[in-house]
Write a structure and sequence with these properties.
Shape: extended
Number of helices: 21
Largest sheet: 5 strands, mixed
Order of helices and strands: EEEHHHHHHEEEHEHEHHHHHHHHHHHHH
Structural class: alpha/beta
Length: 587
């Protein structure tokens, strides 16, 4: 009489008729000897198929719950869904749920595994997590609790760094390269950052329109600098990056801070203009003004607005945020300090007046910096009108304290020193040209109308050259070989000169006509999208459209590069310094 198989292990194993002491796994077809016990079979299931066991266990528990729920209800009862009307009858749910469970607890499909890995990569990049996070017991417990089938599909550090991340980088790089190939113009921002380990890194971002004319920003590289930051070394490094991405002939401008070495490096790139970061210039305006001294009768707190040691020199707005918060909490803070026996000294009425004087002076700079730090809309054209707006705001403020008057005077002077030539096309051509070509501003944003006309003339020259070049490319090929009856023609040179002069005049006339048509059109609303205007009038304004696109991609600041390093600073910390910096551009 054969012994009945009562162990649960025989749900997953089958005895072989010809070898009674041997069984085969129904999941992976592995053969095992079992003798008179099943401990080795259980061990195989635990080590190799634990996720399957867990899934079946949950499946059985859920089916049991469904059976109990069904048996507790009369056959005529209805299942109500509280998201629907009470009188709507619901279809039977037991069979449907069982079908869903059977699909859910099978081995994940290839697509599900790939989606799981993609979500993991998004988590590491988006949440700035170290790669070692995947090895943490807490993370693995969460995955096991949610769906233990995926536990064995968590990639190892080796797989992640040697396979998955490089593959993602390469596939992303191909997509970015294709977009750069399709673009006629590319604007660049760059910045240098030093980590906690005293390692220096250079980052480069590219700004282009895609085929749908949506402004896009890409990090082309974030790489370690292995030499002194000389102009020649930075020049060679940038050129190598541009050549790798095949954009050396498409770069229309490079935006960086005003460091002497990076300016000299860009100067070596014949014809590519350097755009000084407007955010850096604003920062210098404010930080320099905050160093002013005030009279002893107004403050005895180090006589310094910046509160040395309480602010970050390159992030002056933290002082502004602190002051704004202080004023917001003025009443509760005063009450608390009065109730504390050994509390801090309360601010004097004059000190409160000074703070209330400072806030409206610094607020315009914070607003301008925020406005110009965007990446999804053109910003260079906004610099001239915003500079004018800040100056008007400063001059309109009425100060009530000596320190407020001193700070206002200093800010106005610093703005003049840093931005007095911003409208001059000879000094800052990209700023003035982009402003004129913004249909929201045109000439009205300028304080000096003559400088606006100067920018228009510069646009006219560039447009005429573009029109003439296009006509040369489209002109039919003419055979200039001398014929016998023309060999002695002493007037042949004149025909050539006349034709060149006619072409030049025609190009200038066409360019001037296009610009006049553009200027005569009504100004767009400030909330409108400039490129929508140009797309709408593309057929009318033709070549001027291309020039407008060229200048609208140039950022006003190097903030896009700085943002990379803000994230890198969180990743490349002492705790996470094992992360390969080559992968920062992927993140």
């Amino acid at each position: 009489m054969s012994r009945k198989n009562t162990s649960d292990v025989w749900k997953y194993f089958k005895k072989l008729p010809n070898t009674p002491n041997e069984a085969v796994c129904l999941i992976c077809s592995t053969h095992y000897k079992h003798g008179h016990g099943t401990s080795n079979l259980h061990e195989h299931l635990r080590r190799v198929h634990q996720s399957k066991l867990d899934a079946d266990k949950r499946n059985a528990e859920l089916e049991k719950d469904l059976d109990m729920s069904s048996s507790n209800q009369p056959s005529s009862s209805k299942t109500l869904n509280y998201d629907q009307e009470p009188d709507q009858e619901q279809p039977p749910t037991k069979k449907t749920k069982q079908l869903l469970l059977s699909k859910r607890f099978n081995e994940p499909s290839t697509k599900q595994k790939n989606d799981f890995i993609s979500i993991i990569m998004d988590m590491i990049a988006g949440d700035l997590q170290p790669i070692s996070y995947l090895e943490n017991n807490g993370f693995r417990k969460i995955v096991s609790f949610l769906d233990s089938r995926y536990l064995e599909h968590i990639p190892s550090r080796r797989t992640l760094t040697r396979k998955i991340m490089p593959d993602i980088y390469q596939s992303t790089k191909v997509k970015v390269q294709q977009m750069l190939i399709e673009s006629n113009y590319v604007a660049i921002t760059s910045d240098i950052w030093t980590s906690l380990n005293a390692d220096s890194f250079l980052t480069v971002t590219a700004h282009v329109y895609n085929t749908n004319y949506v402004l896009k920003t890409f990090v082309l590289t974030t790489e370690k600098l292995n030499k002194n930051h000389t102009a020649q070394y930075l020049y060679e490094t940038l050129i190598e990056i541009f050549e790798e991405w095949k954009i050396i002939n498409k770069v229309v401008a490079i935006v960086t801070d005003s460091g002497a070495n990076i300016k000299a490096a860009i100067k070596k790139m014949n014809g590519i203009p350097h755009i000084p970061c407007t955010a850096h210039k604003l920062n210098l305006v404010v930080t320099n003004a905050l160093k002013i001294q005030c009279g002893a009768d107004e403050s005895d707190v180090d006589n310094n607005i910046g509160w040395d040691g309480q602010d970050v020199s390159t992030r002056w707005n933290s002082s502004l945020l602190m002051l704004e918060r202080l004023v917001t909490l003025k009443e509760p803070l005063t009450c608390v300090m009065m109730s504390l026996k050994d509390g801090p000294t309360m601010l004097l009425p004059m000190e409160w007046r000074i703070i209330e004087d400072i806030i409206p002076l610094l607020t315009p700079f914070n607003l301008m910096t925020t406005e110009l730090s965007g990446e999804k809309y053109p910003t260079l054209a906004m610099v001239i009108p915003l500079v004018r707006g800040v100056n008007i705001a400063l001059n309109s403020k009425i100060m009530e304290t000596e320190l407020g008057v001193a700070l206002k005077t200093k800010l106005i002077k610093n703005m003049s020193d840093r931005f007095n030539l911003i409208e001059d096309n000879d000094v800052s051509p990209c700023f003035s040209i982009s402003t004129v070509l913004d249909p929201r501003f045109k000439k009205v944003a300028f304080t000096n109308i003559e400088l606006a006309n100067k920018a228009i003339q510069s646009i006219n020259n560039e447009l005429a050259a573009s029109i003439g070049e296009n006509r040369e490319h489209s002109a039919p090929i003419v055979n200039h070989e001398p014929q016998e009856n023309q060999c002695s023609d002493l007037w042949a040179f004149l025909a050539t000169e006349v034709e060149e002069e006619r072409t030049t005049l025609t190009s200038n006339t066409t360019a001037q006509t296009l610009i006049n048509q553009y200027i005569s059109l009504p100004l767009e609303k400030r909330s409108s999208i400039p490129l929508d205007f140009w797309i709408k009038h593309q057929s009318l304004l033709d070549s001027l459209f291309k020039i407008a696109v060229k200048y609208s991609i140039i950022p006003a600041t190097s903030v896009p590069s700085e943002r990379v390093f803000s994230k890198a600073g969180e990743i490349m910390s002492a705790k996470r310094n094992r992360l390969d910096p080559k992968n920062l551009d992927v993140l």
